[in-house]
Specification:
6-stranded mixed β-sheet; 4-stranded antiparallel β-sheet; 32 helices
Length: 758
């Protein structure tokens, strides 16, 4: 066990010692402590670094003054900039470097990007793509290999930090957000521990990286070049937003939703069953009582407020017996004195209705699935389409769509309201609350998916819709979202979206000439698959032909989308039958026809499976590895028999039912991943490497342009207006240049917002 030597730099001696430490190390780890996670607005309070395992330093910049309850500059006034410049002259490793680099640059004026050589989250993702990727969780998992009892240390650190934050005026709930309020020695220790862990983790994974031959892929070909040259600039630049346009449409949308909401409510209130539902619901929740909400409503209903003063504390009528006895003789008096039968049924129901609306805010809450479920299933008599795990009927979007398709007007209006609500909350509300000075900064996680595609909130944007594809208002407001993002004055967007990237890659990696010829001949991929798989005679996949399947039978073409990549990825006849809602025999015939129509596809599927069974991993053509240890270990014990139901039943006595099921799922998923990973990961690498080359070309040509966003197979570049035509040519050339056995296509579009450039 290596002894830990953590130093807080607080005088000239420790400052000089730290400088010597930096100069003595070839590479160091670096970490920032700050007041929060916003790299543009939060404040750096200190940073730490470590070049030798067990030895780390923390330079405090600000500290929390307990008496003044504010951040102040540290009294030692040691110069931060020279130390950062020393660090910038070395090679640096960080964990979540995007944060540390950008907040250091924005706050302290030093850009450490060129010094960055590795990010430990991306190291982990490259050699162990399943995660976890958080620093402490990774360290705990590796604690036996990195020489620390991390679980014990981390727990003690968290308890100490939390107690100290609370003592200094912070909150115990979400105390990590108030880390800056902790005493300097505690923050320093915490930071030193993190940079020490980062170094130990980096050393551990670097050995594995080298052993698996992944160093070129990580350091040179893709991972770190993408991170430094594309990811960091994308996150730093953000995207300018047309705030006037957003706010203008927000007003239109919210006003329209108020009207639609009223239409739905009025429609539901008008159905014959509604009255019974409301009476029962109100009686259950707000029963006829001589006290509480109902009694208060009686006062208003009979207009006898002048007899009862309003309490200053509760804001309710004071209903004492003496005051009630002072009322003239009337049903309300008898009722409030305890005679429940004094009110006639009509009045009681009206009062309940009034209480319900007063308390609930409306007669029916169309956002309440509980209320709608009760009304629709129990009173209207509609049949549910699905049930929860607890066998409760579900009122969901599928049911609303089904009812709307059946011609039920209120359901059609509710569907529209629900869709507009999603557009409002997912896009309008999100971007209005998340914008900073007219910009929105998307996050791009390179370790967000196993394949190497970005995990990003940019991927959630709605796809463009055509007129007639849905209700005109849904189409309009959905299409406004991409218009939020603008290139800025004197600039343009260039949008390049790969045409059918995964199908092209699929045809390439399977090496099936029939699949390749689909694209060589310019035919429609899904129509071709449908024609071959289902032996459709007299149909063509040629979009220009009069008998083009997509024209004559769109449903059959759409059906093929469910299995065109699903079957190669390992979709079973049972799963396909469920997906298409057809008999298992028909599903089996489709799969047989598909694989029979493309003979080399079946060979590639078998070869991929055999490779994973033998080696316990699969590698994409671009060099990324998907580790599949269960494919190898389970195959070694059971062979391919785990896929046989009868064999699984046979071994249940030995292993137990749950364990056999788990083994089967692990093995089946591993085999499926041995195929789909090759396609998905190569597709990701093609997009990633194009982005790297485009940014390099901008730099080489001296053009102030950059990759501004990546959405699925689409890259969006921001370029000067007068360079757009020049950039358009080389961007397309780069994106179509990846060496496949098929020519890729990525036609460019130019516009001033993301909608026009699509």
């Amino acid at each position: 066990m290596i002894k830990k030597n953590y130093t807080i730099i607080n005088d000239a001696a420790t400052y000089s010692e730290a400088i010597l430490h930096i100069r003595a190390c070839n590479y160091l780890t670096y970490d920032v402590e700050a007041t929060g996670l916003n790299v543009r607005k939060d404040i750096v309070i200190g940073f730490g670094f470590c070049g030798i395992v067990g030895t780390a330093y923390y330079l405090p910049i600000k500290y929390w003054d307990i008496l003044k309850q504010e951040l102040l500059d540290v009294p030692h006034k040691l110069n931060v900039t020279p130390m950062l410049k020393e660090l910038a002259s070395r090679e640096l490793i960080m964990h979540n470097a995007s944060y540390d680099i950008r907040i250091t640059k924005n706050n302290l004026g030093i850009d450490l990007t060129s010094a960055l050589i590795a990010d430990t989250a991306l190291l982990r993702h490259t050699v162990d793509e399943e995660g976890p990727f958080a620093l402490k969780k990774t360290a705990i998992e590796l604690q036996d290999k990195i020489g620390l009892d991390v679980e014990k240390d981390a727990n003690e650190e968290q308890l100490e930090l939390k107690a100290n934050v609370v003592k200094n005026g912070g909150t115990a709930v979400g105390y990590m957000n108030h880390l800056y309020k902790a005493d300097m020695p505690i923050i320093g220790k915490y930071c030193c521990a993190d940079v020490d862990l980062t170094l130990r983790i980096a050393n551990h994974y670097n050995v594995i990286l080298d052993k698996e031959g992944l160093c070129p892929f990580y350091f040179e070909d893709e991972v770190m070049p993408l991170y430094k040259e594309v990811t960091l600039p994308m996150e730093e630049h953000g995207v300018k937003m047309d705030m006037e346009y957003i706010k203008e449409n927000y007003v239109k949308l919210t006003a329209m939703m108020v009207d639609i909401k009223k239409d739905v409510e009025d429609s539901l209130i008008g159905v014959p069953e509604f009255h019974n539902w409301l009476c029962d619901a109100a009686d259950k929740k707000y029963p006829v009582r001589t006290k509480g909400s109902f009694a208060q409503a009686v006062v208003g209903y009979y207009r006898i407020e002048k007899w009862f003063p309003i309490s200053k504390t509760s804001g309710k009528f004071t209903l004492t017996k003496k005051l009630i006895e002072g009322l003239p003789e009337m049903p309300a008096k008898s009722f409030l004195l305890g005679d429940k039968d004094a009110l006639n049924i009509t009045d009681a129901l009206e009062i309940q209705r009034f209480v319900w609306k007063m308390k609930e805010g409306h007669l029916i809450n169309i956002s309440s699935k509980h209320q709608l479920k009760s009304l629709v299933f129990d009173y209207m008599g509609h049949k549910p389409l699905s049930f929860t795990a607890k066998k409760s009927p579900q009122f969901d979007d599928d049911l609303v769509q089904h009812l709307a398709d059946s011609g039920i007007e209120w359901a059609s209006t509710l569907r529209k309201y629900n869709k507009l609500t999603k557009i409002k909350t997912a896009y309008y509300d999100r971007f209005l609350s998340g914008e900073e000075d007219g910009y929105y900064h998307f996050s791009y996680k390179q370790h967000g998916t196993i394949s190497g595609r970005y995990g990003s909130d940019a991927q959630q944007l709605p796809r463009p819709m055509e007129d007639g594809q849905d209700d005109k208002d849904i189409v309009y407001f959905s299409n406004t979202v991409r218009r939020f993002f603008i290139s800025g004055k004197g600039r343009k967007f260039i949008d390049c979206d790969y045409e059918s990237l995964e199908p092209h890659v699929f045809a390439h990696v399977s090496n099936d000439e029939g699949l390749k010829n689909i694209f060589r001949n310019g035919h429609d991929f899904y129509s071709t698959i449908a024609i071959r798989a289902e032996n459709l005679e007299g149909m063509s996949a040629d979009k220009k032909a009069g008998n083009y399947l997509g024209l004559l039978d769109k449903q059959l073409r759409q059906k093929a989308k469910a299995y065109s990549l699903g079957v190669p990825y390992g979709m079973t006849d049972f799963a396909l039958g469920k997906t298409l809602d057809v008999h298992i025999k028909e599903a089996k015939d489709i799969i047989s026809g598909y694989l029979g129509g493309f003979p080399n596809l079946k060979k590639w599927m078998e070869d991929s499976k055999s490779f994973a069974q033998k080696n316990g991993y699969i590698k994409s053509e671009a060099g990324r590895i998907r580790h599949l240890p269960k494919a190898k270990s389970l195959f070694k014990i059971h062979g391919d028999k785990l896929l046989d139901y009868r064999y699984r039943k046979k071994i249940e006595n030995k292993y137990g039912k749950d364990e056999v099921k788990s083994m089967y799922m692990d093995y089946k998923n591993s085999i499926n991943n041995s195929r789909n990973f090759q396609i998905q990961s190569l597709s990701a690498s093609i997009v990633n490497r194009s982005a790297i080359l485009i940014n390099r070309e901008f730099k080489d040509r001296g053009i102030d342009g950059w990759v501004a966003a990546q959405v699925h197979d689409q890259l969006i570049m921001n370029v000067p207006d007068d360079k757009a035509d020049e950039c358009k040519v080389f961007i397309q050339s780069i994106m179509e240049s990846y060496k496949l056995s098929l020519q890729l296509k990525a036609p460019p579009e130019i516009g001033v917002n993301w909608a026009d450039a699509h």
